[in-house]
Amino acid sequence: METHEKIRLNGNRDFSGNFDMAIKFIKQNFGPIARGLSYLIPLLLIAAFCIPNLFSMYYQMGTHGLNNPYEDFTVSSFLMAAIGYILLWLAMFAMILFTISYMSMYVKSDDGVVDNIQVWKKTAKVALPAFGASILFGLAFTIGFVLCIIPGIIVMVYLGFYLYAYINEDLGIMDSFQRSIELVRNNFWITLGYGLVFVIILSLIGSVFAIPYYIGLIASTFQVKFFANDFFFILSIMILFVGSLFSYIIMYTAMGVMYYSHRNKIEGNDLEFEIDSIGNHNDTPPSIPY
């Protein structure tokens, strides 16, 4: 395993401090996290194969004068599409749990080196309860969003750290939601603004991976037959899916950095220093560069 200087994630940081820390952590750990998640690529390939060729449908809509590109869809086509999107969701959910579990094990490590096999074991252990918690979170967000959008945003911000709390602090599901509210209380606007910054960054990165898809979609609409074939559609969808998977590492590591900062504000101590200093008589925490 490669060795590198461990970054101390626990610390009381402001907006710019969290942003700088997130960039630093991502630079150091994006590669190891991405390598661990590479096992999900075959799942995304299967998902891409399940998605019906939308380029072909739009091409036929132009050549045959179809008003609705989905009117030739069969029941089996809908089922295959559903399977494809379920597989995509499972891959993205596994990515989220893996990334948070990686950060949890990173914080507890001696040298910042994490074994991805152990991360996957931890991910599998928390998957089922986290799935149930995600359903509750999704329901709360949907209800809030339907009511007037703004309540949905409030729910998303206040409950957004529930998985971090559940995985890092070994809390129950409802306690994890309560912990997330506690972490965001008095930090709502900085959390919202910080999240929006990384949403914008993620959108810009995601738009790059979406370029082949939109080229195929537009070209097929304008009757360019080459782009309507199955190979180009699957290739463009695969690029989009894989790009999204790895791009979201940035979002969840960045929010993880803020989670540890909020947690430190409440607990008022450097958890990593306490772990590192067990058996060490020097009680002065080392300097932490931000």
From TrEMBL:
<feature type="transmembrane region" description="Helical">
    <location>
        <begin position="231"/>
        <end position="255"/>
    </location>
</feature>
<keyword id="KW-1133">Transmembrane helix</keyword>
<dbReference type="Pfam" id="PF25231">
    <property type="entry name" value="DUF7847"/>
</dbReference>
<keyword id="KW-0472">Membrane</keyword>
<keyword id="KW-0812">Transmembrane</keyword>
<feature type="transmembrane region" description="Helical">
    <location>
        <begin position="188"/>
        <end position="211"/>
    </location>
</feature>
<protein>
    <recommendedName>
        <fullName>DUF7847 domain-containing protein</fullName>
    </recommendedName>
</protein>
<feature type="transmembrane region" description="Helical">
    <location>
        <begin position="37"/>
        <end position="59"/>
    </location>
</feature>
<feature type="domain" description="DUF7847">
    <location>
        <begin position="126"/>
        <end position="248"/>
    </location>
</feature>
<feature type="transmembrane region" description="Helical">
    <location>
        <begin position="79"/>
        <end position="105"/>
    </location>
</feature>
<feature type="transmembrane region" description="Helical">
    <location>
        <begin position="126"/>
        <end position="143"/>
    </location>
</feature>
<dbReference type="InterPro" id="IPR057169">
    <property type="entry name" value="DUF7847"/>
</dbReference>
<feature type="transmembrane region" description="Helical">
    <location>
        <begin position="149"/>
        <end position="167"/>
    </location>
</feature>
